[in-house]
Amino acid sequence: MLSQRLISIMLKPYVMAAPPPLAVAELTPDEAKALARKHPEMARAGGRSAVAITGEADLVDSVVQAVRRLSHGPTKGSAVIDTVLALMAHEPGNREHYIDVLMASLGVADRSELPQLIRNARRRAELLRDFEGLTSAQVADLRGSTAGNRAAIASRWKSERRVFSVRYQKSELYPAFQFDEDGEPRPVIRRILEAIEGRDGWALALWFTAANGWLDDKRPVDLLDKAKREDDIVEAARRSFEPLAV
Question: What is the pTM of this model?
Answer without folding.
Answer: 0.60
